[in-house]
Structure formats: structure tokens, C-alpha cells
Amino acid sequence: VSRDGVVRSPSVGRVIEVLVRVGDAVGVGQEVAVVESMKVEIPVAAAEGGQVATVLVVAGDPVRAGDVLLTLAGARNDKEGV
Amino acid sequence: VTWQPEVDEIHRRMALAEAMGGPANVARQHEGGKLTVRERIARLLDPGSFHETGGLTAKPVYEDGRLVALTPANFVLGTGRIDGRRVVVGGDDFTVRGGAADGSVAYKAGYGELMARELRLPIVRLVDGTGGGGSVKTLDEMKRTYVPANPAWDVVVALLSEVPVVGACMGSVAGLGAARVVTAHFSVMVRGTSQLFVAGPPVVERGVGEVVTKEELGGSHIHAHESGAVDNEVESEDEAFAHIRRFLGYLPANVWQVPPRRAPADDPARREEALLALVPRNRRRGYDVRRLVALVVDHDSFFEIGRQHGRPLVTGLARLDGYPVGVLASDPLQGGGGLDAPASEKMTRFVDLCDTFHLPCVNFVDQPGFLIGTDAERAGTIRAGARALAAVYQATVPWVSVIVRRVFGVAGAAHGNAQRLNLRYAWPSGDWGSLPIEGGVQAAYRREIEAAPDPDARRRELEAKLDALRSPFRTAEAFGIEELIDPRDTRPLLCEWVVTAYDLLPGRLGPTRRGCRP
Fold first, then answer.
1. Which of B183, B297, B318, B341 would disulfide-bridge B518, Cβ 3.0–4.6 Å?
2. Can you tell me the distance from the alpha carbon of B166 to that of B186, in angstroms, rounded to the nearest whole number?
3. Pairs across A and B, CB distance < 8 A
4. What DSSP designation does B507 have?
């Protein structure tokens, strides 16, 4: 899990759901998207808190392991988020 | 008229050797957040149990025939005890020559490997330096160069098939030292203070023009997370010793012995209510497989190996009613648990480890198949996977599978050796076959669905019909699965199985026909 202000897809698969929008405050460990891989839904959590700056995928998009799903502004690795 | 003066001389010299590379170098080692080799050995072993071999090996300085100073060899070797059981331990002394081998070291290290082999004892290598490969300075001292040969390598390789071998990366380790770390059944490195590489940053810059720090080149994030060259990443040297002690606790001293049972500290009949609801009824939802394992095996007995690498597969050692076992379990939250190339490689090594040391295996199966897609094909998933299959089919150790949920495809079929007694217990959440119903119906029945007055209704009807056939009870009716069990009965059944498995072991000891490779 990277701590560089981005949330990446953990596996190859398809985006099932994006749970946040641009501008939303996100806390550490918050589930922000769901990726389906090998027929299992994998919850994707933010490794750091921040404000959602961009959302790069929509439900249905195919993704590879490591693809950026969304970026966070003012990312902070704490419990409260921003 | 006694030999007391010489006995005193032995003690004097040993005391001089205790000073290692001198106070300044020892202080530098500590400033780098690292212990000295002697401190490491003392902390790894049971207190006071170290017995040194070759403590007098040194470069001496004589004046008028009397030794006035010495530089100890930078490899410390001996035997000692871990939980009362004897092991061989050897480590580089980085405070002398930066751990780069001098002439005596290759012999000392090789002697240690021979001790392990002939006394049939586990060996722990605390590598901190080049560990035998020398340095360019050796060239200046010898006034000649030499054709490289890896010292005692026949023994190093043979040990893998005979006794437990542990490689600990305790500093910046290159070349032969790096090879010694990973030519092991279990390897560990300390985050931040240890790095491992074929060659370090200066050589890399000259050779391939890449400018990197030691940490970027070979830190634990590279080898414990990405490359899988090292099994476990720890936060401190003490944690490394704890991992080594724990690992060896499950293993026999050698392949001619039965793995050591501990006095059981948990009820073999314990039935956990939580297991009944652990697997979500919604097939598309994952669950915490480590929790599943923890609920089944003896309390706090699971020791995970390679957690950060090959993550779709969880591997580790555990106990059932005090008996050591190998545990494999798919993690549905990592790529659905599909075996990718790294996970397949991890599986191969783990099955070989268990087979070599006669550790009965429990496989918790939730396998959707090999990972698919272009990236997976590029990674050579099929060959890495086929190798894992071969490991399962070559293994002769007692094996039981608990089918937790899915068994699909070639990878699913490899949950056990179908040509042996493929002992297995399936949970009611069992779901297997080669056809995924969701999505598959549309393709297989396209014409029928399109011709229907209400295509959507027809598709749902077909899905419902096929879904009913998916019931594991239908498979059980045909003896396609031998048993469906209450998940809460898993531990009692496995604790009964493990006793039978251990009764079989005495007749199966010794090296396996296939040797073990790193």
C-alpha cells in the first residue's frame, strides 16, 4: 500500500463501485472503492487521509494491479483525515 | 609444573577477541542501529549457551615472540541452544574489515556448515558483510587474483535437504553473503538496517549506470515485499531473533527426526461458533482468512512465513494439539485468492519445506484458479503454477484439505494429490466446478434467451436452475466430495487427523528423493 497521495488498485480486475467524490474528506483505512477480481469484491481502503482531488475511474472500468484509482490532496497519514 | 600458563593464555586471547574490531568500530556499529556479532549470538541463543569454535583465529602481532595484539577473524562460529535444542550459529563481524572475509573466514564458515551436516544440527547464518567473498583489498594483499569458487558450496546445498537452514540479513549484504542468506529454508531481514543485493551501489553505478541508495537497491521493501528473495521483514534485530527461534521451534533438528510436539495448551475439541458465519453467504464477498486459521489451529500457534509476498496465498507453521503442521490458505481479499506467479513460487517452496521436514500439511482451500489476464501471462503464471502442482504431487507428507469455498480450474484441482488418498473436508459454503454461472449463462444460452418473449426473465430462470445444481449436496450424493462438515467441527477433526499423521511419520523419515532447492 503506497503512501504517496494516491489510491491504487490492489489487483487486476474491474471497478465495481467508487464510494467517494471529488472534495470528500477521507480518513485512514476508509473504504473508497471496490474492485472485483477473480469474482471476489475487494474493498480498497485509503492508506492515508486527505481530500479527494481526482477520481480517475468509474464503475465498470477494467484496471490492472497498481493502477491509480483516485488521488488525495493534503494527504496525511493519521486517523482523522483532513 | 602444570599447563596453567598456557590455559591462562587461551583465556587472554579469547578476551582479546571479545573486543572485536575495537571500541571505535563497535561504537560505529551501534550508531548504525546494529548489534555486534557477539551481542547477536548472545541474544539469539538461550542465555549462556554459546560454545565458540575457532575463537583463537586471528591476525597476530608478536613482539619478541610474545603476542601483544591481535585482530580477530571476522567470522564468529559455534554451537548453542534455542529452547534447549542445539544449533550451529555463525556470523560475520562487521567491525573487522567491514565484514569482508579474510583468509581464515572461508574455512571457519565452511567448518560450521560441515558441523551442521555431520552433527545433523540446524544452522543459523547471521550475515553482515560479504560473508566469504573477500574484497578488492585482498588482491592488494595477495599480489595475485584467483578464479572464484564458492567455499563449501556442496555442503551449503546439501544442508537444504538434511537440516533446517536459516539465513538472517543483518546489514548490507552483497554477493556470496547474499547467496548465503537466501540459500535457506527461512530468511529474515531487518527493515531499515539491512539491505541485500548482488552488488552494492558503487558497483551498480559503474556497471549499469544506475544511481541508487543501498535502501532503494535492496531494502526489505524490495526483497520481502516485491522479489520474495527474503521471507520475513522485521522491525528490529531482536524481532529477527524471535522469528528465527519461533521458526526452528516447529522443525525437527534434521530430516531423520520427527518434528517436535509441544505440550498442548489448547483443547483439541474446541469448536468455534464464529466459524459458522465466517464465510459470507454472498459469494462475491471475501473474509479474513488469517482469522479462520487462528480459530482452528492451537491458540497463538500460527507463524506466518512470507506475509508480504505472493499474497493470494498465506503460508505458515502452526500446531494442532501440540503437533507442528504446515498451513496453506488462500486469501480471497488478495486478487480473489487466485494463484499468481509469486504465490505459486511461494507455494512450491513451502510445500517443499514441509515435505523435507515431514510436517503434515493442512490446506484451507478457496481457490478461484490461476490469476488470469495479460500481466499474469507475462509473469509466466502457468509454469510457476505447474511447478507448484508438481510440488504437491511430489510431496509424500500426510496432507488434508479443508475446502472452505471455491475449487475452480487447474489451480483448484491442485489442492491435493488426487492420485493419493485425497483426504478432505468441505464446508457447506463449498462451490466448485469449471463454469462460472454468473455471466456464463448469457454466453452459453444466448439464442434461447434472445428467442424468449421476456429474455431477462428467461435468463434469470436459467440462472436459478443452474444455481440449484451448484449445491455441494449434489456433489456429495455422487461421492464427488467425501464429506460436508459443520465448520465448527474443523478443529476437532484436524486434531484427530494430526495424531494419525504423526503415527505414520517414524516410517517415513530421512531425506526425500528430490532434494530441496532455495
1. B183
2. 5
3. 53
4. G
CB within 8 Å of B81: residues ≥ 6 apart: B45, B46, B49, B87
- Give the closest-approach CA distance of A44 to chain B in angstroms: 10
The 10 Å CB-count burial string (b at 16+, else e) for B40-64 is bbbebbbeebbebebbebbeeeeee
pLDDT of A76: 60
CB A25 within 8 A of CB A82: yes
Determine the Cα–Cα distance for residues B402 and B320; give it in Å rounded to an integer.
Answer: 14
Report yes or no: A47 and A2 within 8 Å, Cβ to Cβ.
yes
Nearest residue of A to residue B333 by CA position? Answer: A42
What whole-number percentage of chain B has pLDDT above 70? Answer: 96
Cα B297 to chain centroid distance, Å, stands at: 19
> What is the Cα–Cα distance from B271 to B295, expressed in whole angstroms?
9
SS3 (DSSP) at B322: coil
3-state SS, residue B338: coil
Q: What is the full DSSP assignment across B80-102?
A: EEETTEEEEEEEE-TTTGGG---
Instruction: Look at residue B275 in the predicted model and tell me its pLDDT.
Output: 98
C-alpha cell, B158? 546439501
Asked whether the beta carbons of residue A37 and residue B338 sit closer than 8 angstroms, the reply is yes
At B191, the amino acid letter reads R
The answer to whether the Cβ–Cβ distance between A12 and B375 falls below 8 Å is: yes
| C-alpha cell at position B303 | 507463524
Closest chain B residue to A63, measured at CA? B373
Min distance B190 CA to chain A CA atoms (Å): 19
3-state secondary structure of B290: helix
Q: Which of residues 34-73 of A touch B (CB under 8 A)?
A: 36-43, 64-65
Cα dihedral across residues B441, B442, B444, B446: positive or negative: positive
ipTM of the complex: 0.74
Give the distance from residue B215's alpha carbon to the nearest chain A alpha carbon, in angstroms: 17
Please write the tens of the pLDDT for every residue from B33-84: 999 999 999 999 999 999 999 999 998 899 998 899 899 998 999 999 999 9
Which three three-digit cell numbers place residue B359? 510436517
Mean pLDDT across chain B: 93
Please give the Cα distance from B170 to B440 (Å, whole number): 52
Which ranges of B86-174 does DSSP label H, i.e. alpha helix? 103-119, 136-142, 153-159
Give the Cα-Cα-Cα angle B126, B356, B315 (nearest 5 degrees): 75
